Amino acid sequence: MLTALQLLNVLLPLGYLLAVLAYLVVFLDSPDWARKVATPLTMGVVAAHLAYLILCTLVFQHVPVANAWESFTFVAFAMVVVYLALEWRWKDKATGVFLLVPVLSFQILSSAFVTHTREVAEILKSPLFGVHVATALVGYVAFSVAAVYGTMYILLYRELKKHRVGLIFRRLPTLETLSRLNMGAIILGWVGLTLAGVLGVVWAESLTSSGMLQGNFYADPKFLLTLVIWALYGATLGGRFLLKWPNRQLAYLSLVAFFLMVGTSLAVNLVLPSFHQFS
After folding, report:
1. pLDDT at 266
2. DSSP codes of every residue in the chain
């Protein structure tokens, strides 16, 4: 299995590179052959990526999110899955290249520097921990995808207001489609973060009862700041579906929430003490 892992570690960046090139052709020229090839090709790479993650879990006895380089490959996987889900829902391939480039970048970094080991903290071997972190990463990645679509919406809106639409903007989807992609990504992210929060509470309670967790989990800065992010994105969804806020306002709000998410994550990881720092 180690040989298979090493082979997949090399092949995944190559597969994503081919996917990027296919979606680039779709964006620049959109010939029929490229539109027919891009999605099946990417789905094939995703299937190989899933096999890689499963093999890593079986061989090293923990979900591959125990260090930064392992997490990078999971981020790449989550981002391409989120993109494919949105493409399938809204039948639009024009933005694929913008999402596949960061996927390729994350996978190249992971493939180049990852070091797998069975020697990780016992707390990281818990299946509940793996699912908790995986759903949290899916949530954060989906919010990042939403920020990409929110940025596209705002830039295209400004170009249209100036009656000056360049070549790149002419190839983007309509404002309405970009807004739907933005909201679709936020829905996926909010569901992912909700599941991560619920699983995190269950996991923390089990650790507390077993004596492996000291202190009050509910006062943990990471937990509290995650609740703020969850509430802000929840308010965005409420504004869209209940209050019928304008699409432009929602695009700006998704960017505000994204930068707040990045800022709070940096604060927790670099400044604030947190139960989520396992080292």
Report:
1. 81
2. -HHHHHHHHHHHHHHHHHHHHHHHHHHHT--HHHHHHHHHHHHHHHHHHHHHHHHHHHHHSS-S-SSHHHHHHHHHHHHHHHHHHHHHHH---TTHHHHHHHHHHHHHHHHHH----S---GGGG-HHHHHHHHHHHHHHHHHHHHHHHHHHHHHHHHHHHTT---HHHHTSPPHHHHHHHHHHHHHHHHHHHHHHHHHHHHHHHHHHHHT---S-GGG-HHHHHHHHHHHHHHHHHHHHHTS---HHHHHHHHHHHHHHHHHHHHHHHHTS--TT---
